[in-house]
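Key idea: predict the complex, not the pieces.
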Amino acid sequence: MMSYELYYWPGLQGRGEFVRLALEEAGADYLDVARLPPSGRREDANPQGTEHGIDAMMSILQSQNEPCIPFAPPFLRDGTTLVAQTANILLYLGPRLGLAPADEALRHWIHGLQLTIADMVTEAHDTHHPIANTLYFEQQRDAARQRAADFIANRIPKFMHYFERVLEQNPAGCAHLAGAALSYADLSMFQLIDGLRYAFPRATARFAAQYPKLTALHEAVRARPRIAAYLASPRRIPHNESCVFRHYAELDAR
Amino acid sequence: MMSYELYYWPGLQGRGEFVRLALEEAGADYLDVARLPPSGRREDANPQGTEHGIDAMMSILQSQNEPCIPFAPPFLRDGTTLVAQTANILLYLGPRLGLAPADEALRHWIHGLQLTIADMVTEAHDTHHPIANTLYFEQQRDAARQRAADFIANRIPKFMHYFERVLEQNPAGCAHLAGAALSYADLSMFQLIDGLRYAFPRATARFAAQYPKLTALHEAVRARPRIAAYLASPRRIPHNESCVFRHYAELDAR
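Result:
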């Protein structure tokens, strides 16, 4: 069986991390292609005969003949199938990795939750880049301070109250966002909370008291054996200021 | 057979419009629930026994016992199934309305395109609201001017070159974004282009010359009989400044 090939920028967790957590929890065989040392040609020594390194990722993005060209990383190659967009990759992997239920309505419910998580990730990113990706943070600092203040005052509470309600109203119990079993959305919720706590430690200082069920979910995911092993491994890139979740003290609550 | 029930803010196209276009193209039986006159109770005279009007939408959003509570409109009810998030609704409706192919890889390709369209819609929105949804445009005008300038200079070209390439590299021909038949992503691409041209008429003045295949797709969708009839009907809400696509002359190119 071929390995899944994940393509994402090396050196940051970013949106690729949501996919990595699913692959790691499932114990799936995967290559984190752009983080591997470059291999010049397909003939070189690796079992799948694929190129490695960031050039391999760029050559897919710039391909003039690939029909399913991604707009941006992350994307996943599974044999001849290329899937782009984080939530779409998880939709594809979910049933294959045992991280999504068979029931169609429940799958759409989980996917909708994942898309809402993705929306919040974009908003977290935009706290440090509210004007343009092509400018440095320092070039949009005033707008960033305003946007981050609104994110802390209005958006974190709105999203987190919603997700806490989702846990409360899950008829199968509050251990999981949807249904009675772990899904990729639970893993992504761990990552979202983890990123928010890293980026905004003062604003999230009372998180456990405000959102006890989300806090329990975050801790339960972190304690899962494969996730714990992954987080302790060099495969887990530390949070840093190249990521969507960046800690700039001036953007955090006073 | 029950009608599909679409829930979205009345008075604007917004993200609900991407769903409306799919329902209209398919000639599907649907209720645009929040736009209907209020009906106080489920027992009132309508064949599905559901409540109408914006209160009906709010009561789902605020429900304390609904398991699949949406974060925000649009959402769709189909019998007992509730689906939220625009792209997720289209993923659900696609095969049911004949607007998505049977092939799984192609479905994920189309869904990935839809998510990239959704990303651009969010960026179009953020040109007039770069700081906070809770503030008026006039309260974030300076940041809006900066963000809109970047959107015009960098983001419209990046996204539109990408989508033009998708048409060029479609092995089944450049009439559709994916495969040989119309999909919901084609309809959404019409709406995205339509919204951008409304919001930024000067910045998109050369659109037809710059993106000939996208322009042909936009015109082909607009000329489809059911779409043309819909656009000429009172069901199509005109573009306006409550929408994600707003025309503020000061944000457009000089």
